[in-house]
Amino acid sequence: MAVKDMLLLLSADTQAGGGLALAIGVARQQQSALTGLCLYREPAPAPADGWAVGTDCGADVRDRQSVRIRRLLHPLEAAFRAACEGFPTSDWVALPCDDPSADPSLYARLFDLVVLDRPRSRHGASWTLAERVLLQSGPPCLFAPEWAPAQPSFERVLIALNGGREASSVLQASLPFLKAAKEVAVACFSEEAHHLASCDGAQRHLARHGVETIARYADPAAADIGRAILDQSCVFGADLLVMGDSGRPRISEGLLAGATRTVLACASLPVLLAH
User: How far is CA 178 from CA 64, 130, 210, 234, in A?
Assistant: First the structure.
C-alpha cells in the first residue's frame, strides 16, 4: 500500500515532540499529502464574560472566545504551515477535545498513515489518545520519539512478530518503508512452532515483494517482551521498529497489549504500529 494521504495528530495541551518533523520527512519521502489535526481544550472565559446578558453581549463573548482559541492555536498552525511550504497538498484542522462528537479516531479512518508523538507516560490524555487512535481508527500509526530526525532514513528496520493475526496488517502497512530500507530484520518473540513458522512465512512473503530479510534471535521467554524488543532494536541498530499490537477490546474502549505499552512508553526510535 502506498502512503499518499497522511494525518499528523497534534495537541495544544502538551509539549510538542518529534511528530511534526517526522511527519514532514515521511511525507516528503513518500510524496504524500499531509493534514494536520490539532486537538485543543477551549480556554477558560474571562470572569466578566460570565455576567454577559443579552443577544449582543452573547455574541461579543463568543467573538472574544474565538480570539482566545486562535491565539492558542496560532503557534502550532504557523509551525505546521511553515514546515509544509512547497507541499503539493496540505490541510489544517482544529478540533475541540471537549466535544464528544470530535473524535480523532473517526477522523483518522480515511488516511493511509497517522503520525503522532509517543506518549510520555502510561497515563493521561496522550496515552488515551494513542490507545483510541491505534485501536479504533484502522490505519497504521507511526509514533515519533521526543526528538525525531527531520529527514528520516529508515535504512535499518526491525520487524517484531509474535505470530498473531496482526502480522498481516503490520507487514502490509510497513511495505513502503521496507522496500526503501537497506537492511530489514525479522524477530519472532514466540517459541510456539506455528508462530515460528509464520515468521518464516513472513520472510518468504516479503521476499516476494522484493524485500530481503534476515532473522534475528529473540528470547520468547523474556520476562518483559517489550523491553526485549527494544533491546533487539538497539543491538540491530534499527532506526525504525515495526510491530503489531494484539490488544483485546474491553467493554467500551481498547487496551493495548503489555509489550506495546512498554515500547510506546520507552522507545527512543520511531515505532510503526498496526492493530
Answer: 49, 24, 9, 18
Record the cell numbers describing residue 103, joined without a space.
Answer: 473524535
| Domain assignment of residue 54, yes or no | no
Whether 60 maps to a domain, the answer reads: no
Closest CA to 226 of 197, 267, 169, 178: 267
Residue 57 lies in a domain: no
pTM of the model: 0.86
Interval 70-77 mean pLDDT: 89
Same domain assignment for residues 132 and 171: no
pLDDT at 65: 72
Same domain as 250, residue 203: yes
Domain residues for the domain of 235 are 156-274
Angle between helices 258-266 and 225-236 (to 10 degrees): 50
For 136, other C-beta atoms within 10 Å of its C-beta total 17
